[in-house]
What we know:
CATH topology: Aminopeptidase
Largest sheet: 9 strands, mixed
Structural class: alpha/beta
Mean pLDDT: 94
Number of domains: 1
Low-confidence stretches: none
Order of helices and strands: HHHEEEEEEHEHEEHEHHEH
Shape: globular
Number of strands: 11
Distance between the termini: 78 Å
Amino acid sequence: MKLFRIPLWLWLLLIVAGLGYAFHPYLLEQLNQLEQKRLLSQPLPQVSEMPQRLDFQRQMADLTYLASEELAGRGTGQPGGLKAQQWLVTQFTAIGLATAGTEGYLQPYQPTSGKAQLMKGAANVLGRIEGSDPALPLLVLTAHYDHLGLHQGKIYYGADDNASGVAALLAIARYFKQHPPRHPVLFAALDNEESGMWGARMLFEQELLKPEQIKLNINMDMLSHDTNKQLIAVGSYHYPQLGQPLLQLQQQSSVRLLLGYDRPAWRVGTHQDWTLSSDHREFHKRQVPFVYFGVPDHAHYHQPTDTIDNVDQEFYREVSETVLDAVLLFDAS
Protein backbone atom coordinates (compact mmCIF):
# COMPACT_ATOMS: atom_id res chain seq x y z
CA MET A 1 0.00 0.00 0.00
CA LYS A 2 1.34 3.41 -0.98
CA LEU A 3 1.41 6.10 1.73
CA PHE A 4 -0.02 9.51 0.95
CA ARG A 5 2.87 11.84 0.27
CA ILE A 6 2.75 15.59 0.81
CA PRO A 7 4.62 17.40 -2.00
CA LEU A 8 7.76 19.26 -1.01
CA TRP A 9 6.34 22.60 -2.11
CA LEU A 10 3.38 22.13 0.25
CA TRP A 11 5.74 21.30 3.14
CA LEU A 12 7.64 24.49 2.42
CA LEU A 13 4.41 26.50 2.29
CA LEU A 14 3.28 25.09 5.63
CA ILE A 15 6.65 25.86 7.21
CA VAL A 16 6.61 29.45 5.92
CA ALA A 17 3.02 29.92 7.11
CA GLY A 18 3.89 28.55 10.53
CA LEU A 19 6.92 30.79 10.85
CA GLY A 20 4.85 33.78 9.73
CA TYR A 21 2.21 33.03 12.35
CA ALA A 22 4.83 32.61 15.07
CA PHE A 23 6.62 35.84 14.19
CA HIS A 24 3.48 37.88 13.44
CA PRO A 25 3.30 39.64 16.86
CA TYR A 26 7.01 40.43 16.63
CA LEU A 27 6.63 41.89 13.14
CA LEU A 28 3.67 44.02 14.22
CA GLU A 29 5.64 45.39 17.14
CA GLN A 30 8.60 46.17 14.87
CA LEU A 31 6.27 48.12 12.56
CA ASN A 32 4.88 49.93 15.60
CA GLN A 33 8.37 50.96 16.69
CA LEU A 34 9.24 52.16 13.20
CA GLU A 35 6.09 54.29 13.15
CA GLN A 36 6.93 55.75 16.55
CA LYS A 37 10.38 56.67 15.26
CA ARG A 38 8.78 58.28 12.19
CA LEU A 39 6.53 60.38 14.39
CA LEU A 40 9.31 61.51 16.70
CA SER A 41 11.62 62.34 13.80
CA GLN A 42 9.21 65.09 12.71
CA PRO A 43 10.42 68.66 13.29
CA LEU A 44 10.55 70.08 16.79
CA PRO A 45 8.65 73.33 17.49
CA GLN A 46 10.41 76.41 16.10
CA VAL A 47 8.24 78.92 18.00
CA SER A 48 8.62 79.57 21.72
CA GLU A 49 5.24 81.21 22.34
CA MET A 50 1.94 81.45 20.48
CA PRO A 51 0.22 84.81 19.93
CA GLN A 52 -2.77 85.72 22.07
CA ARG A 53 -5.65 86.09 19.61
CA LEU A 54 -8.36 84.08 21.34
CA ASP A 55 -10.08 85.27 24.51
CA PHE A 56 -8.54 82.56 26.64
CA GLN A 57 -9.99 83.80 29.94
CA ARG A 58 -13.48 83.46 28.46
CA GLN A 59 -12.53 80.11 26.94
CA MET A 60 -11.43 78.74 30.33
CA ALA A 61 -14.67 79.98 31.88
CA ASP A 62 -16.59 78.06 29.20
CA LEU A 63 -14.55 74.91 29.78
CA THR A 64 -15.02 75.20 33.56
CA TYR A 65 -18.80 75.44 33.20
CA LEU A 66 -19.03 72.59 30.69
CA ALA A 67 -17.04 70.36 33.07
CA SER A 68 -18.92 71.47 36.16
CA GLU A 69 -20.98 69.41 38.60
CA GLU A 70 -24.05 71.31 37.39
CA LEU A 71 -23.80 69.69 33.95
CA ALA A 72 -22.88 66.31 35.50
CA GLY A 73 -20.84 65.01 32.56
CA ARG A 74 -23.24 66.10 29.79
CA GLY A 75 -24.68 62.65 29.12
CA THR A 76 -26.91 62.60 26.04
CA GLY A 77 -30.53 62.83 27.18
CA GLN A 78 -29.55 63.32 30.83
CA PRO A 79 -30.47 66.62 32.53
CA GLY A 80 -26.87 67.83 32.34
CA GLY A 81 -26.65 67.08 28.62
CA LEU A 82 -29.91 68.91 27.90
CA LYS A 83 -28.75 71.87 29.99
CA ALA A 84 -25.46 71.96 28.04
CA GLN A 85 -27.44 71.92 24.81
CA GLN A 86 -29.49 74.96 25.78
CA TRP A 87 -26.42 76.77 27.13
CA LEU A 88 -24.71 76.30 23.76
CA VAL A 89 -27.73 77.84 22.04
CA THR A 90 -27.36 80.93 24.24
CA GLN A 91 -23.63 81.10 23.40
CA PHE A 92 -24.21 80.83 19.64
CA THR A 93 -26.86 83.54 19.95
CA ALA A 94 -24.55 85.84 21.90
CA ILE A 95 -21.72 85.35 19.39
CA GLY A 96 -24.11 86.26 16.59
CA LEU A 97 -23.78 83.12 14.46
CA ALA A 98 -26.42 82.53 11.82
CA THR A 99 -28.77 79.67 12.68
CA ALA A 100 -27.94 76.47 10.78
CA GLY A 101 -30.07 73.75 12.35
CA THR A 102 -33.52 72.46 11.50
CA GLU A 103 -35.02 74.31 14.50
CA GLY A 104 -32.99 77.48 14.85
CA TYR A 105 -29.58 76.46 16.11
CA LEU A 106 -30.79 72.98 17.06
CA GLN A 107 -30.88 69.87 14.93
CA PRO A 108 -32.90 67.37 16.98
CA TYR A 109 -32.72 63.71 15.94
CA GLN A 110 -33.43 60.25 17.29
CA PRO A 111 -30.80 57.49 16.89
CA THR A 112 -32.30 54.26 15.58
CA SER A 113 -29.88 51.53 16.67
CA GLY A 114 -27.54 50.48 19.46
CA LYS A 115 -27.65 51.89 22.98
CA ALA A 116 -28.10 55.39 21.53
CA GLN A 117 -31.70 54.60 20.49
CA LEU A 118 -32.63 54.63 24.20
CA MET A 119 -31.42 58.23 24.58
CA LYS A 120 -34.07 60.92 24.17
CA GLY A 121 -33.49 64.59 23.44
CA ALA A 122 -30.34 64.32 21.31
CA ALA A 123 -29.55 67.40 19.21
CA ASN A 124 -26.64 69.06 17.47
CA VAL A 125 -26.11 72.80 17.95
CA LEU A 126 -25.20 74.45 14.64
CA GLY A 127 -24.22 78.00 13.74
CA ARG A 128 -22.68 79.56 10.67
CA ILE A 129 -20.57 82.46 9.44
CA GLU A 130 -20.98 83.10 5.72
CA GLY A 131 -17.48 84.42 5.00
CA SER A 132 -16.41 87.06 2.53
CA ASP A 133 -16.80 84.69 -0.44
CA PRO A 134 -19.93 82.59 0.16
CA ALA A 135 -19.39 80.78 -3.16
CA LEU A 136 -16.38 78.95 -1.72
CA PRO A 137 -16.87 75.43 -0.30
CA LEU A 138 -17.66 75.06 3.38
CA LEU A 139 -15.24 74.61 6.25
CA VAL A 140 -16.89 72.50 8.98
CA LEU A 141 -15.49 72.81 12.51
CA THR A 142 -16.74 70.10 14.86
CA ALA A 143 -16.45 69.28 18.55
CA HIS A 144 -18.74 66.92 20.47
CA TYR A 145 -20.29 68.29 23.64
CA ASP A 146 -21.63 65.03 25.06
CA HIS A 147 -19.68 62.86 27.49
CA LEU A 148 -20.47 59.84 29.68
CA GLY A 149 -22.56 61.77 32.18
CA LEU A 150 -23.74 60.10 35.38
CA HIS A 151 -22.85 56.42 35.59
CA GLN A 152 -23.30 54.19 38.64
CA GLY A 153 -23.50 57.21 40.91
CA LYS A 154 -20.31 58.83 39.60
CA ILE A 155 -19.94 61.94 37.45
CA TYR A 156 -17.70 61.56 34.41
CA TYR A 157 -16.92 65.26 34.02
CA GLY A 158 -15.27 65.12 30.58
CA ALA A 159 -13.13 68.25 30.92
CA ASP A 160 -10.62 67.16 28.28
CA ASP A 161 -13.12 64.87 26.51
CA ASN A 162 -14.53 67.07 25.17
CA ALA A 163 -15.32 70.27 27.03
CA SER A 164 -11.88 71.37 25.82
CA GLY A 165 -12.85 70.99 22.17
CA VAL A 166 -16.21 72.75 22.61
CA ALA A 167 -14.68 75.70 24.49
CA ALA A 168 -12.10 76.03 21.69
CA LEU A 169 -14.90 75.88 19.10
CA LEU A 170 -16.67 78.78 20.82
CA ALA A 171 -13.44 80.80 21.11
CA ILE A 172 -12.68 80.31 17.41
CA ALA A 173 -16.25 81.27 16.49
CA ARG A 174 -15.86 84.51 18.47
CA TYR A 175 -12.59 85.23 16.67
CA PHE A 176 -14.06 84.72 13.20
CA LYS A 177 -17.11 86.79 14.03
CA GLN A 178 -14.68 89.69 14.54
CA HIS A 179 -12.33 88.65 11.69
CA PRO A 180 -14.52 87.19 8.93
CA PRO A 181 -13.06 84.22 7.01
CA ARG A 182 -13.03 83.84 3.24
CA HIS A 183 -14.89 80.51 3.29
CA PRO A 184 -18.27 80.00 4.88
CA VAL A 185 -17.73 78.18 8.18
CA LEU A 186 -20.12 75.87 10.01
CA PHE A 187 -19.55 75.60 13.77
CA ALA A 188 -21.02 72.28 14.90
CA ALA A 189 -21.28 71.23 18.55
CA LEU A 190 -22.26 67.60 18.11
CA ASP A 191 -24.15 65.17 20.32
CA ASN A 192 -23.88 61.37 20.71
CA GLU A 193 -20.19 61.02 19.80
CA GLU A 194 -19.68 58.71 22.76
CA SER A 195 -22.45 56.38 21.58
CA GLY A 196 -21.64 55.98 17.90
CA MET A 197 -21.01 59.40 16.32
CA TRP A 198 -24.73 59.84 15.71
CA GLY A 199 -24.54 63.63 15.72
CA ALA A 200 -22.03 63.71 12.87
CA ARG A 201 -23.91 60.98 11.03
CA MET A 202 -27.20 62.90 11.20
CA LEU A 203 -25.65 65.98 9.60
CA PHE A 204 -25.61 63.92 6.41
CA GLU A 205 -28.63 61.67 6.90
CA GLN A 206 -30.89 64.69 7.42
CA GLU A 207 -29.09 66.35 4.48
CA LEU A 208 -28.01 69.47 6.31
CA LEU A 209 -24.65 68.80 4.67
CA LYS A 210 -23.75 67.38 1.28
CA PRO A 211 -20.22 66.04 0.82
CA GLU A 212 -19.61 67.88 -2.44
CA GLN A 213 -20.22 71.24 -0.72
CA ILE A 214 -17.48 70.75 1.90
CA LYS A 215 -13.82 71.71 1.57
CA LEU A 216 -12.65 70.27 4.90
CA ASN A 217 -13.72 69.04 8.32
CA ILE A 218 -11.59 70.15 11.27
CA ASN A 219 -12.51 68.07 14.30
CA MET A 220 -11.39 68.95 17.85
CA ASP A 221 -11.58 66.21 20.46
CA MET A 222 -9.36 66.34 23.59
CA LEU A 223 -7.01 69.33 23.48
CA SER A 224 -6.02 70.15 27.04
CA HIS A 225 -3.73 67.47 28.51
CA ASP A 226 0.00 68.00 28.12
CA THR A 227 1.54 64.64 27.17
CA ASN A 228 5.12 65.61 26.34
CA LYS A 229 3.66 68.75 24.73
CA GLN A 230 2.34 66.71 21.81
CA LEU A 231 -0.67 67.41 19.61
CA ILE A 232 -1.68 64.87 16.98
CA ALA A 233 -2.97 65.92 13.54
CA VAL A 234 -4.76 62.99 11.89
CA GLY A 235 -5.78 62.84 8.23
CA SER A 236 -2.92 63.70 5.90
CA TYR A 237 -2.20 60.03 5.10
CA HIS A 238 -5.67 59.71 3.56
CA TYR A 239 -5.67 63.22 2.03
CA PRO A 240 -2.09 64.06 0.99
CA GLN A 241 -3.11 67.54 -0.16
CA LEU A 242 -3.38 68.44 3.53
CA GLY A 243 0.25 67.61 4.15
CA GLN A 244 1.83 70.89 3.06
CA PRO A 245 -0.41 73.19 5.14
CA LEU A 246 0.11 70.92 8.15
CA LEU A 247 3.89 70.97 7.66
CA GLN A 248 3.66 74.76 7.63
CA LEU A 249 1.58 74.58 10.80
CA GLN A 250 4.36 72.55 12.44
CA GLN A 251 6.75 75.42 11.82
CA GLN A 252 4.53 78.08 13.40
CA SER A 253 3.34 76.21 16.51
CA SER A 254 4.94 76.14 19.96
CA VAL A 255 3.57 72.63 20.61
CA ARG A 256 4.94 69.50 19.00
CA LEU A 257 2.54 68.77 16.16
CA LEU A 258 2.82 65.17 14.97
CA LEU A 259 1.24 64.11 11.67
CA GLY A 260 0.04 60.54 11.97
CA TYR A 261 -2.20 58.11 13.85
CA ASP A 262 -3.93 57.55 10.50
CA ARG A 263 -1.97 54.69 8.89
CA PRO A 264 -3.28 51.13 8.45
CA ALA A 265 -1.93 48.15 10.40
CA TRP A 266 0.03 46.76 7.46
CA ARG A 267 2.18 49.90 7.67
CA VAL A 268 2.32 50.56 11.41
CA GLY A 269 1.56 47.23 13.10
CA THR A 270 0.02 47.73 16.54
CA HIS A 271 0.31 51.51 16.49
CA GLN A 272 -2.99 53.33 17.02
CA ASP A 273 -5.05 54.42 14.02
CA TRP A 274 -7.53 57.19 14.87
CA THR A 275 -9.08 57.44 11.40
CA LEU A 276 -12.47 56.26 12.70
CA SER A 277 -12.16 57.27 16.36
CA SER A 278 -14.26 60.47 16.53
CA ASP A 279 -16.81 62.50 14.57
CA HIS A 280 -14.48 63.02 11.60
CA ARG A 281 -15.26 59.36 10.79
CA GLU A 282 -18.58 60.32 9.20
CA PHE A 283 -16.87 62.85 6.93
CA HIS A 284 -14.15 60.38 5.93
CA LYS A 285 -16.78 57.71 5.12
CA ARG A 286 -18.15 60.18 2.57
CA GLN A 287 -14.68 61.03 1.20
CA VAL A 288 -14.66 64.50 2.73
CA PRO A 289 -11.10 65.52 3.75
CA PHE A 290 -10.60 65.92 7.48
CA VAL A 291 -8.02 66.92 10.06
CA TYR A 292 -8.56 65.65 13.57
CA PHE A 293 -6.69 67.44 16.36
CA GLY A 294 -6.30 65.62 19.68
CA VAL A 295 -3.78 64.75 22.37
CA PRO A 296 -2.41 61.26 23.06
CA ASP A 297 -4.35 59.03 25.43
CA HIS A 298 -3.84 59.72 29.13
CA ALA A 299 -4.79 58.21 32.49
CA HIS A 300 -7.90 60.40 32.91
CA TYR A 301 -9.52 59.38 29.59
CA HIS A 302 -13.10 58.19 30.27
CA GLN A 303 -12.52 58.37 34.02
CA PRO A 304 -14.24 60.50 36.70
CA THR A 305 -10.84 62.19 37.15
CA ASP A 306 -11.11 64.00 33.80
CA THR A 307 -11.76 67.26 35.63
CA ILE A 308 -10.84 70.91 35.26
CA ASP A 309 -8.05 70.41 37.82
CA ASN A 310 -6.16 68.23 35.34
CA VAL A 311 -6.25 70.73 32.48
CA ASP A 312 -2.83 72.17 31.61
CA GLN A 313 -3.93 75.72 30.89
CA GLU A 314 -0.85 77.04 29.07
CA PHE A 315 -0.62 73.96 26.88
CA TYR A 316 -4.34 74.21 26.14
CA ARG A 317 -3.94 77.87 25.16
CA GLU A 318 -1.08 76.99 22.80
CA VAL A 319 -3.06 74.14 21.25
CA SER A 320 -6.13 76.35 20.74
CA GLU A 321 -4.04 79.00 18.99
CA THR A 322 -2.48 76.24 16.85
CA VAL A 323 -5.93 75.03 15.77
CA LEU A 324 -6.86 78.63 14.95
CA ASP A 325 -3.74 78.84 12.78
CA ALA A 326 -4.83 75.66 11.03
CA VAL A 327 -8.23 77.13 10.20
CA LEU A 328 -6.57 80.32 8.93
CA LEU A 329 -4.17 78.32 6.71
CA PHE A 330 -6.94 76.23 5.18
CA ASP A 331 -9.18 79.27 4.79
CA ALA A 332 -6.43 81.04 2.87
CA SER A 333 -5.77 78.10 0.54
